[in-house]
TrEMBL record:
Residues 1-31 have a biased composition (Low complexity). One of its GO terms (molecular function) is penicillin binding. This is Cell division protein FtsI. The chain crosses the membrane at residues 45-64. Residues 304-615 form the Penicillin-binding protein transpeptidase domain. PANTHER family: PEPTIDOGLYCAN D,D-TRANSPEPTIDASE, PEPTIDOGLYCAN D,D-TRANSPEPTIDASE FTSI. Keywords: Cell cycle, Cell division, Membrane, Transmembrane, Transmembrane helix. It comes from the Bacteria. Belongs to the transpeptidase family.
């Protein structure tokens, strides 16, 4: 029994242990499930928080910051570049083009971007034969073949391998050729530019000047033609127009490789205006040619010449013996770019005696036929004045004083005019003042202020020493006499033609009444005797200036130059001048000429009259000027004792 009870107790104990163990496992299970639920809830809360933050950020990006971020992205891949404006043309008085622009292309390459793209290609295509060297070698060969006169293959290879992130390759490429090159090598950059062309080369180059492009920023293609010298520079604002603006997308904001087809105009370019000049290009060519030949024949350092309309002051030709080719900047010399005809004054010599002749008639000091006893020498303060030839006391007519170019006779008449009236005449003729012709760098010349005159000043000025003028100013003096005493400012630009075709004439030139018409005609008639081919002493100083069938009125000049070594007047360096009116009886043109230090021992070196004859003969034919009413009457110059 005891044994039975023991077994019963053992079974009961085992059952209790199992019941306890089961209860224990159940409690543990309940505790475990609760922990899992807690961790899941925490993770879920964390995910919800993350999603909320992401949602807020997304809303901020898509809603509040969208415009700013979009603009920033656009700035990274968009560039604003210039659209070059069409530069206006420069034409002569007959519409012949002296300067105009044509559209061309400039080729360039972004070396940094090309290196990167070639490296990326090699990484993706191991063992490829397409490398930077092979690609640029092929391009160099192809471009050189297309542009054999512009650039060589080795030059291109050197540019491709230069140490730079960007380089220009070649300028002035025809658009069709540039398009073909880019078709074969898409990494070649192309920029629109304008090429300035001067069909006449050096024709009127000192007037027209030259223009070229300049780059303010190579990476954004700000290229526009701008004037460098001459009217191209002075009238740049009229000619240049206003560049437009274009927005383009680039493959990389820092590399500026333009994506084709992404160009969008922001502002259209406004073309420049054309300039119509008073110049006649045919006459300009002839004057340049004749002047250069004469300078060479006379062994002169240089020379200038001008042809003006006697009534309007319009400049038909303005030439220097030296010029330049605006099409080829590599050949330019600094001295040749200047325009000495308006920038370089000189002491004119006896052509300035026109002032004394005018004063003598206008103030009633003399008449053309009245006589003056002219001694062989004249003392003026501490200076003794002589004529160009040795003579004793001679009786000159007033006309003869100027036809023979007597220094002494001129000074005797000037003394009767008086210093004050003479000084006022110089001013009235425009000396010491810029003409306002409308060309850059114009000199006013030099006339000493009246308050600075010394005792010898009035012994120099009437014979053309001690003051200076340009050849244009010199011609302007004779234009005054040709135009019945009315001085008209010369001009060289006739009108501006706007892009819409409207013509805007230049402001009317100012005019100054110097003397009355009768005085001017009397002086003009007196000066006909300069070309008189009389016998012996009745011969003027310039019979070689005469043009058959036409009356010629003019004056020769020989002005001493200051020797740069001694700073005193030279005995062998001279300005040889001539100014003339054609025809004298019905003035149409005025011609002024200056030779700089010719060899005066040569037949063509001691006078510019033969050059005047050649130019005047061409002018009469080109403009079919009617013949004069008759030959100039021969008048007495020196009265025989």
């Amino acid at each position: 029994m005891a044994s039975g009870r023991s077994q019963a107790r053992a079974r009961a104990a085992g059952s209790a242990r199992r019941t306890y163990a089961a209860g224990t496992r159940s409690a543990a299970a309940r505790r475990g499930n609760g922990g899992h639920r807690s961790r899941f809830s925490a993770v879920r809360l964390l995910l919800v928080a993350v999603l909320i933050v992401a949602g807020v950020k997304l809303v901020q990006v898509q809603w509040f910051d969208a415009a700013a971020l979009s603009a920033a992205a656009e700035r990274q891949r968009a560039q604003t570049i210039d659209i070059p404006a069409q530069r206006g043309s420069i034409v002569d008085r007959n519409g012949a083009k002296l300067a105009f622009s044509v559209e061309v292309r400039t080729l360039s390459v972004n070396l940094k971007a090309l290196h990167k793209s070639m490296d990326d290609f090699a990484t993706k295509n191991p063992g490829t034969a397409k490398t930077f060297d092979s690609e640029t070698a092929a391009a160099a060969k192809y471009i050189a073949g297309k542009l054999p006169n512009a650039i060589g293959e080795q030059q291109l290879l050197d540019l491709f391998h230069k140490q730079a992130s960007f380089t220009y390759l070649v300028n002035n490429v025809e658009p069709s050729i540039a398009a073909d090159i880019v078709k074969h090598f898409a990494w070649i950059g192309v920029e629109k530019r304008a090429l300035r062309e001067y069909p006449g080369g050096g024709l009127a180059a000192n007037i027209v000047g030259a223009a070229n492009w300049r780059s303010e920023d190579q990476d954004v293609s700000k290229h526009n033609l701008h004037g460098l010298v001459g009217l191209e520079l002075l009238r740049d604002n009229d000619l240049a127009g206003t560049p437009g603006r274009m927005l383009v997308n680039t493959k990389n904001g820092s590399d500026n490789v333009v994506i084709p087809g992404t160009e969008r105009d922001l502002q259209a370019a406004v073309p420049g205006s054309d300039l119509e000049l008073t110049i006649d290009s045919d006459l300009q060519y002839e004057v340049q040619r004749q002047l250069a030949d004469y300078v060479q024949q006379s062994h002169a350092k240089g020379g200038q010449a001008v042809v003006m309309d006697a009534k309007t002051g319009e400049v038909y030709a303005l030439a220097n013996d030296k010029t330049f080719d605006p099409n080829d900047q590599s050949t330019w010399k600094t001295d040749d770019l200047a325009n000495p005809a308006v920038t370089t004054p000189f002491e004119p010599g006896s052509v300035n005696k026109l002032v004394t002749a005018t004063g003598a008639i206008d103030f009633g000091v003399a008449t053309p036929e009245s006589t003056v006893e002219v001694p062989g020498a004249l003392q003026v303060a501490d200076k003794t004045v002589h004529d160009a030839w040795t003579h004793g006391t001679q009786t000159f007519t007033t006309t003869g004083i100027f036809a023979k170019s007597s220094n002494i006779g001129t000074l005797l008449l000037a003394q009767k005019i008086g210093e004050e009236r003479y000084a006022n005449l110089l001013k009235s003729f425009g000396l010491g003042q810029r003409t306002g012709v409308g060309l850059p760098g114009e000199s006013a010349g030099v006339v000493p202020a009246r308050s600075q005159w010394s005792a010898t000043t009035f012994g120099n000025l009437p014979i053309g020493q001690g003051l200076s003028m340009t050849v244009l100013q010199m011609a302007g003096m004779y234009q005054t006499i040709a135009n019945d005493g009315l001085r008209v400012e010369p001009r060289i630009v006739k009108a501006k033609v706007n892009p819409d075709g409207t013509t805007v004439p230049e402001p009317a030139p100012k005019s100054v009444r110097v003397v009355n018409p009768q005085t001017a005609k009397t002086v003009r008639d007196m000066m006909r005797a300069v070309a008189q081919n009389g016998k012996g002493v009745q011969k003027g100083t310039a019979p070689t200036a005469a043009v058959e069938g036409y009356q010629i009125s003019g004056k020769t000049g020989t002005g001493q130059q200051v020797d740069p070594r001694t700073h005193a007047y030279s005995d062998h360096l001279y300005n040889i001048t001539f100014a003339g009116i054609l025809p004298a009886d019905h003035p149409r043109f005025v011609v002024g000429i200056r030779l700089d230090a010719p060899d005066t021992t040569l037949p063509v070196g001691h006078s510019a009259a033969p050059l005047f004859h050649t130019i005047a003969s061409y002018v009469t034919q080109r403009y079919q000027i009617p013949l004069s009413d008759g030959p100039s009457p021969e008048v007495p110059l020196i009265i025989a004792p």
